[in-house]
Amino acid sequence: MIQVRNVSKSFGSTNVLNELSIDFDKGVTVIMGQSGAGKSTLLRCINGLEKIDGGDIVVDGLSINEKKNVREIREKCSMVFQQFNLFPHLNVLENVTLSPIHVLGIEKKKAQEKAMRFLEMVGLSEKIKSYPSQLSGGQQQRVAIARALIMEPSALLLDEITSALDPEMTSEVLEVIERIAREGTTMLVVTHEVSFARRVADRMVFLENGKVLADQNTEDFFSSNNERIMRFLQKIEFN
Amino acid sequence: MTLHFRVIFNNLDFLLEGLKMTFYISVFSLIIGFFIGLVVAFMRISKNKLFSSIAIAYVEFFRNTPFLVQLFFFYFGLPELGISTEPVTTAIIALGINNAAYNSEIIRAGIISINKGLVEGAESLGFTKFQIVRLIIIPNALRVTFKPLGSNFINLILTTSVAVSITANELMSNAMTLSSNTFRPFEIYLTILVLYCVLTFSLSGLIHFVDRKFISKGIS
Ligand SMILES: Nc1ncnc2c1ncn2[C@@H]1O[C@H](COP(=O)(O)OP(=O)(O)O)[C@@H](O)[C@H]1O
Ligand SMILES: [Mg+2]
Fold it and tell me: What ipTM did this prediction achieve?
């Protein structure tokens, strides 16, 4: 579904991704790695927010190197960010319906009905008239999830979506993600939440210096005797 | 002293004619001031050093010189270069150019207020560049700029009175003509003070209403 082939990306003289190759298929893939390993850059490249320097990324048969494919790829891979990035001038319902109306060309009434389903799924059907500034961080992030889901993407890209939240809000957001995962949504999830990853991941990927250091099923990963992975897991579990 | 407001009623048409001209000058210089302000704002934040320097020079020059002198320069100075315009046109151009200097700083603040994450959030959903400008950037920039631009516009209306110095036949010019014909300065200037006040006060009410109702929704 998503093929990353020999992708390189650098910022100035910093090589962030080094000829990285990996395929993502159905199911939930959790990506872990030290800060600065290139996790965000990988997701941002798949979403076309960063332009790759070399290699190719193919999403449902569309190469990101063809300029005209970028918007279609973005429709297929919805991204949720650490900082929510909601539209502050629109209320919750408008935030969720803006892209189906203008990107997918769905009629407003239909878009609203559809939005209500997803807002219910994230537990926010009572808040449709609220503006982002009137919501807690956890609620804002759940709106952002609904806004991504309504595009019915082939894959959902989640980049440390709970890192800006306190523990209580973190669990309310992770619960929503777990529910969506159980419904069979394909997701690439960057997170430091170990117990969440154990529950939700079908597959674990560990990035180091812009390369894939480990790519295995969840159980094997967490019982890995690779020294660097063990040290990483110890460190984050300690925090 | 006895007040003779009859002079006002007898010449009401003449004063209203002036008010209409004031309105006309204001609206056209508003439009010019907005578009030049927009261009200057983008030049100011551009990475091109030449553009940003020109923009800074423009803003500082027009904010640090008296408007009356600018107006005289346009009206009396430019004909020396063979560029000569009617009083009304000159007033519109001078006011527009002057107002643009103030507007550009406000618009620049509006543009800067749009953070990268907001745009990326929209990009990642597949909006086109044009849709992002129309649906996300402009409405959010307006939240920062609408009221300050509105106060600039009100200032602009009041400043049109300076055009009396080149007799642009706006409210102040007509009032002055009337005053020297009738020797009733107190009644006449009091009346036009009230007219200016009614005009700008209701406009500022309208600006606040539009802002609250349509633009600043969701700001806590
Ligand atoms: N826009 C950018 N400009 C310059 N350097 C960047 C940019 N984005 C990321 N980097 C650098 O790339 C490296 C990888 O970043 P990132 O992908 O965000 O890592 P991670 O998400 O794994 O923490 C870091 O060293 C970071 O400083
Ligand atoms: Mg990151």
Answer: 0.90
